Amino acid sequence: MNALTYLPVDSVISELSQTAYGLRYKITSDAKGPFFYGWALGSFLLAGARCGNPREVDKRLEKSSQIRL
Fold first, then answer.
1. Who is most buried in 17, 25, 45, 57, counting CB within 10 A?
2. The overall pTM is greater than 0.85
3. Containing domain of residue 35, as a range?
4. Predicted confidence pLDDT, tens digits, the chain (69 residues)
């Protein structure tokens, strides 16, 4: 998801990046826990903003008391 988070240089989101975004909870260890390793939570929030999905940020903030980093 680097193209969505830390290197968003393209004006159009590629199909590969959209697929990675759609699978983000499946391909990230313990993300449904709620537990996030390293930069995973930040990546999810940045990718959600880049994909025009403000609900991603809202969803994480609502559960912020449960999140373990």
1. 17
2. no
3. 16-62
4. 778 888 777 778 889 888 988 888 888 887 777 677 888 888 888 888 888 887 777 776 676 666 665
